[in-house]
Amino acid sequence: EAEVAQSPRYKITEKSQAVAFWCDPISGHATLYWYRQILGQGPELLVQFQDESVVDDSQLPKDRFSAERLKGVDSTLKIQPAELGDSAMYLCASRQTGTQETQYFGPGTRLLVL
Amino acid sequence: DAKTTQPPSMDCAEGRAANLPCNHSTISGNEYVYWYRQIHSQGPQYIIHGLKNNETNEMASLIITEDRKSSTLILPHATLRDTAVYYCIVKITGTASKLTFGTGTRLQVTL
Questions:
Q1: Set of chain A residues whose Cβ sits within 8 Å of the Cβ of B43
Q2: Residue A98 to residue B88: CA distance in whole angstroms
Q3: Any residues with CB less than 8 A from the CB of A49 and at least 6 apart, and which?
Q4: Which among A26, A57, A45 has a CA at the least distance from the CA of A90?
Q5: What CA–CA distance (Å, rounded) separates B88 from B17?
Q6: Is the pLDDT of residue B95 over 60?
Q7: What is the mean predicted confidence (pLDDT) over B17-37?
Q8: Are strands B9-13 and B105-110 parallel, antiparallel or unpaired?
């Protein structure tokens, strides 16, 4: 069964450092999402791509976060500089284009900022 | 997207049916009810969704009231592996739609 791949699974960094997360969606899925999940809360959308275009980045803290999906396939989420409050699980999800399609999530990257 | 209300936690004995309620009193006519679950330290997993008819798949059943203001997810024979946080989400389908998660219901299945 096809799955969404994410790496790394765990990342420990010091504040003010740069970090990057990678996501490879299910083949053929045009829509890709990055969510952030703080411990004890549900995931919150950071950015949504349709192919290589950003559809929604209203909740992305653009002063330090950036996301790209240059060829409309895999995607990278970057934080620079990292802050203590960025410690969270970063989840990637993908979806086929359609009206009732569901989102499939990867295993996530757990980030700890010291 | 409409807001949902779920109990923060529930317990269920293994082998019994787990009935997880969700209120979505402000749901609009073009919003679907989706259920996802998240097992500890994993990404959310799709379970089931529906518009107004009851739905069943290999994982669960979804019962939606006639007025669509509430729904119940039923796991017919809960196992220890069903211990997870269950999220009820209502959303409009379409290319711009996103999942808006609440805090969900933490289901603990016990021996």
A1: 4, 91, 93, 105-108
A2: 21
A3: A31, A32, A33, A55, A67, A69, A72, A75
A4: A45
A5: 18
A6: no
A7: 94
A8: parallel
User: What's CA A21's distance to the chain center, in Å?
Assistant: 7
Q: How close is the nearest chain A Cα to the Cα of B28, in Å?
A: 16
Residue among B87, B98, B102 whose CB faces A48 most closely: B98
Nearest CA in chain A to B44: A105
Higher pLDDT, B2 or B105: B105
Query: Nearest-CA neighbor of A33 among B96, B90, B104?
Result: B96
Task: List, for residues A1-19, the tens digit of each pLDDT value.
Answer: 789 999 999 999 999 999 9
Q: Does A108 touch chain B (CB under 8 A)?
A: yes
**Using a CB-CB distance cutoff of 8 angstroms, which residues of chain B are in contact with residue A48?**
96, 98
| Gap between the Cα atoms of B29 and B7, Å rounded | 24
Per-residue model confidence as pLDDT tens digits over A55-112:
999 999 999 999 999 898 999 999 999 999 999 999 999 998 776 678 999 999 999 9
- Please enumerate residues of B whose Cβ is less than 8 A from a Cβ of A: 32, 34, 41-46, 49, 87, 93-96, 98-104
Q: Do B41 and A110 touch (CB under 8 A)?
A: yes
